[in-house]
Amino acid sequence: MANRVAAIDVGLRRIGTAISPDGKIAIPQNPILRKNRNQAANDVSRFLQEWGIETLVVGIPDGSSHQEMKKRIEHFVSLLDFDGEVVYVDEGFTSHEAKEATKGIMRHKKDGRLDSIAAAKILERWLDSARI
Question: Which of 57, 70, 84, 119 could staple 18 via S-S, CB 3.0–4.6 A?
């Protein structure tokens, strides 16, 4: 499991990003602010290439009430210039976990930092399950 792994938390305005250079820890990265789908896909593709990512973990909502967002996320991933492995994992409660983890530490602005912390939570979840 020594390959380079990244996670994204795809939102309508921001995309949180995180990497794991060693398969052990998840490190939040700068979020990608989304002006439009193509710009965001290009920015994510560039991020993946810059880090030499081999596996991309994508947070996806679970449950029937989230089918539309799930389709949007899958479509977005199809726009990426990435030929590595793509793994979808349940992102349930990661945004809440990110808010709780940073309560009192940072102001919760809409600058995308929380989205990247949520992406790190998604990546941690996947790394934990891959170690079992």
Answer: 119
The Cα 32–Cα 64 span in angstroms is 27
> How is residue 60 written in tokens?
């996806």
Q: What is the pTM of this model?
A: 0.83
14-20 vs 5-10, strand pairing mode: antiparallel
- 62: phi then psi, degrees, rounded to nearest 5: -105, 155
CA-closest candidate to residue 32, choices 24, 40, 23? 40
With CA atoms as reference, report the closest residue to 91 among 121, 132, 112.
121
**pLDDT tens-digit series, residues 13-51:** 899 999 998 888 999 999 999 999 999 999 999 999 999
Give the whole-angstrom CA distance, residue 71 versus residue 120: 22
